[in-house]
């Protein structure tokens, strides 16, 4: 029982990171219809800022704030420089643009910083653990869970009670009508990218705090998993992105913990098979977007 509870905590910590990343993808997709595969590079930018702040001896709280701010600024610049000029092009053009931006940033990281993994200096307390009965929970795991809950509460409040959030929700429902009501497209889309950058920056801090390293491809795997989580939850659905992130995190952790040793090498394929089984019964995702009208045939 203690092992199950221990792994459940780990599942919440990992699932929370996937949920934040999936939310960042879902926010942009719900408004623009774009899956931004350069979203992972926002994570990498935050990771490198965190690394350099540590080398400079800045307090960890200031380092975290600068790392998250860097992701927000990078996301807004990415939208302005790369995506705004092709906004009215086909979905395929925007998708190729997102891959191009991701590859360009990866090459820049490799050539201007290092192709190898770099250590990130973290406070000692992140390596400590707390014992609850028979459970030993790392401070970084507790921090990840608490941070995820706080971010989800903040996002819910922002979307329901702030003018910018309400404008994003309206644009996600029907962008054309929202523009007729006076909502400015550039402002809403830039805000969506800024929000996705915020979520990517927070996710990057959580990711780095548990691994203490950063490399040019750091964001690739988490964002690929977040994309799967977004589809699992319902592409374009914010609540679905959260549900998909936590479910995918639980699948990965429980398979790693309870799958027989001889089957561990097949853990990822088995996990994807479970995702496919869920989608067979819920083809539009766990909590499908109201704007998605796809049907199983």
TrEMBL record:
CDD domains xrefs: TM_PBP1_LivH_like (cd06582)
Record-linked InterPro entries: ABC_transp_permease, BCAA_transport_permease
Localization of this protein: Cell membrane
Membrane topology classification: Multi-pass membrane protein
Biological processes annotated in GO: D-alanine transmembrane transport; L-alanine transport; L-isoleucine import across plasma membrane
Pfam families cross-referenced by the UniProt entry: BPD_transp_2
Keyword set, alphabetical order: Amino-acid transport, Cell inner membrane, Cell membrane, Membrane, Transmembrane, Transmembrane helix, Transport
GO CC annotation, single: plasma membrane
Molecular-function GO terms, alphabetical: L-isoleucine transmembrane transporter activity; L-leucine transmembrane transporter activity; L-phenylalanine transmembrane transporter activity; L-valine transmembrane transporter activity
Transmembrane segments: 12-37, 49-77, 89-109, 129-159, 188-208, 228-257, 269-287
Family: Belongs to the binding-protein-dependent transport system permease family. LivHM subfamily.
Protein's name according to its UniProt entry: Amino acid/amide ABC transporter membrane protein 1, HAAT family
Organism listed in the record: Sedimentitalea nanhaiensis
